[in-house]
């Protein structure tokens, strides 16, 4: 059996404490941002939230966190998002500034795992409400639990004004029209890579590289 010196033990404890403190810091920031946004109070600066999201993403990778598809079940309101911008001569992108979503616009992301949830299959709905106008997209999902990656494809569009629905039709956003959604490679589908999932908040990076934070809609 390998023997560990006091130095090894101390270094391990220091690393554990650093991870624990880091987790506590970004969770406190994101929880405060979510609560303040929900209650209409003063929210933390956008830059602080972006840094907290990056720390959460880093922690999920280091600790190899996995979240079951069922933990995403429900309705989630978009609270905060970042843009991205291309970097010249580097062939990549970097995060743009983050912003809180205006309260007069409600953007909901809804997940409903199917009875085949063990296979990562389910339904997704993305709806935007502005006053009495509601735009809703619905479609299918497949979830790769080991990567916390949820791919999706919208297939139905609905637009209504108050109780009058004047558009309700099938659409096809996927790049491989006519093929079965579950047979399509992830690389050809839009997706979210989740790195934080709790009872009240979820956070992910989209295929385009931007970060987003949602709060549970009660």
What can you see in these coordinates?
- With 218 residues, the chain is an alpha+beta fold.
- It has 2 helices and 10 strands; from the N terminus they run ααββββββββββ.
- An 8-stranded antiparallel β-barrel has the order 1-3-4-5-6-8-9-10.
- α1 crosses α2.
- The longest helix is centred in the first third of the chain and has 34 residues.
- The radius of gyration is 20 Å and the shape is globular.
- The N terminus is likely disordered.
The largest sheet has its strands arranged as 1-3-4-5-6-8-9-10
Order of helices and strands: HHEEEEEEEEEE
Distance between the termini: 53 Å
The radius of gyration over CA amounts to 20 Å
Major pleated sheet: 8 strands, antiparallel, barrel
Q: From the helix content, strand content and strand pairing, which structural class follows? A: alpha+beta
Number of domains: 1
Determine the mean pLDDT: 84
Binned strand content: 35-45%
Question: Which helices and strands occur, and which strands form pairs?
Answer:
Elements: H1 6-39, H2 46-62, E1 74-87, E2 92-100, E3 105-113, E4 121-130, E5 133-144, E6 149-161, E7 164-170, E8 191-197, E9 201-206, E10 211-216
Antiparallel strand pairs: 1-2, 1-3, 1-10, 3-4, 4-5, 5-6, 6-7, 6-8, 8-9, 9-10
Helix pairs in contact: 1-2
Keywords:
single chain; 218 residues; alpha+beta; Lipocalin; eight-stranded antiparallel barrel; 10 strands; globular; disordered N terminus
TL;DR?
The chain is an alpha+beta fold. It has helices at 6-39, 46-62, and strands at 74-87, 92-100, 105-113, 121-130, 133-144, 149-161, 164-170, 191-197, 201-206, 211-216. The protein has an eight-stranded antiparallel β-barrel with strand order 1-3-4-5-6-8-9-10.
């Amino acid at each position: 059996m390998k023997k560990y010196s006091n130095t090894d033990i101390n270094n391990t404890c220091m690393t554990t404490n650093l991870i624990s403190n880091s987790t506590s810091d970004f969770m406190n920031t994101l929880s405060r941002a979510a609560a303040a946004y929900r209650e209409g109070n003063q929210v933390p600066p956008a830059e602080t939230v972006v840094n907290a999201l990056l720390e959460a993403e880093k922690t999920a990778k280091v600790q190899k966190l996995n979240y079951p598809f069922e933990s995403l079940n429900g309705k989630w309101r978009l609270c905060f998002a970042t843009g991205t911008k291309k970097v010249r001569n580097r062939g990549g992108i970097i995060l743009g500034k983050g912003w809180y979503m205006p309260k007069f616009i409600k953007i909901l992301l809804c997940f409903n795992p199917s009875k085949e949830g063990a296979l990562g299959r389910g339904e997704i709905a993305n709806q935007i409400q502005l006053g009495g106008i509601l735009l809703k997209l619905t479609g299918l999902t497949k979830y790769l639990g080991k990567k916390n990656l949820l791919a999706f494809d919208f297939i139905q569009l609905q637009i209504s004004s108050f109780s009058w629905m004047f558009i309700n039709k099938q659409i096809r956003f996927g790049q491989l029209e006519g093929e079965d959604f579950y047979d399509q490679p992830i690389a050809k589908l839009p997706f979210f890579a989740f790195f934080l999932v709790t009872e009240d908040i979820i956070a992910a990076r989209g295929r385009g590289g931007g970060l987003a934070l949602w709060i549970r809609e009660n």
